[in-house]
Amino acid sequence: MSDDKRRLEADRSRRQFLAYLVAGGATVPLAACTEASELSGAADEGSHNPLLWAVAWQQTAAEFGALCHQAYNVARMRLDLAIGNRRSGDKRLAVITDMDNTIIEATNYWGYLINEGYEFFDDAIWDEWIPKNLIQAVPGSRDFLMYCDENDVEIFYVSNRDQGDRTYEYALAQLELIDFPQADEAHVTVIRETSNKMAIKERVSASNDLVLMLGDNLNDYKRDYYVTDVDERYALMERDRDEYGRDFILLPNPTDGHWVRAIFGDSEPAPTDENRRILKEAATRSAWDGT
C-alpha cells in the first residue's frame, strides 16, 4: 500500500472513530467534535439513502434517456415489420403497454421520498402523489404511440393501481394530460386487485393481432416472473431471452418492480433494519474480498 493510500485509510478510520465517540456521548476536543458532528449531519441529511444512486441515474443520466429511446426504436422497427406484412382482412394490429415507468415517469415521486428521508417505496405517499399529476412522458413513449395511432394500430393501456374508487379516473386523467392517443374507456384498463395482466393479453390476442407488449417489469409480460426467488427469476429470463425485442420491449426501472419482490418476498418491503440487511446482502452477492 502506498503512503498516500495509508494516509487516506488512517484519516477515514480516525473520522469514523470520532463519529462513534460523539454518537456515544464521549468527551472529545471541540475541533474533533465539530468534525464528527459534520459527518453525522451529512448522514442525517440522507446521504446514505439506498435510493440515491438509482434516482440520481433516472433524473440525470443521458444513458437512461438513451435506453428508453432505444427500447422505443426497437418497438417501432418491430411494428414496421408487422405493418409491412399486414394484409386486407387481417385482424387489426395491437400493442399493449404498461403505464408507470413505461410511458409515464414517476421520478418526481422518488425525489420526494428522498427529500423526506424515506428509503423504500411508500404506498400511502404514492396514493397521495398520483392525483397531483406531477408527471411527464418517458422519453420516446409518446412518439411511438402516436406512430401506432397514425398507422391504425390499436393501443391498450394496462395498469395495476389502487387509489380507491377514483383509481380509473386518475389513470385516464394522466394519459389525457400527456395527450397519449386512444386514451378512452375502450383502451384503458386498470386492475386494482392484482398485478396479473395475462387476462388482458388473452383478450387482446383474441380480438387483434398482438404485435408486442411494453413494460418495465418482466411480470408485465408473463406471470411466470411473479416469483420470490432471484435465481429462479433469472433462469426464467434466460429461457425467454429470444423474445425480448421481439414480443416484449423492456424499459429500465432501477427503483421498484417485482425484482424487489424476488429479493424481499414483498414488492413493497418495510423500511426495517432487517430489510436493509437483506438489501445489502443482495448487493454483495458478488463482491471482491479485497485480496
Describe this structure in words.
InterPro entries: Acid_phosphat_B-like, HAD-like_sf, HAD_sf, TAT_signal. Keywords: Signal. This is Acid phosphatase. The protein has a five-stranded parallel beta sheet, sandwiched between helices. The protein has a two-stranded antiparallel ribbon with strand order 2-3. The chain has two domains: 3-47, no CATH class; 62-105 and 135-275, HAD superfamily/HAD-like (Rossmann fold, 3-Layer(aba) Sandwich). With 291 residues, the chain is an alpha/beta fold. It has helices spanning 3-23, 30-47, 52-60, 62-84, 107-115, 123-129, 141-150, 167-177, 198-207, 230-239, 258-264, 273-283, and strands at 93-98, 104-105, 136-137, 154-159, 188-190, 209-215, 248-250. β6, α10 (230-239) and β7 (248-250) form a beta-alpha-beta unit. It is built from twelve helices and seven strands. It is globular, with a radius of gyration of 23 Å. Residues 17-23 and 32-43 have low confidence and may be disordered. It starts with a helix and ends in an 8-residue tail after the last helix. α1 (3-23) packs across α2 (30-47), α3 packs across α5 (107-115) and α4 (62-84) packs parallel to α7.
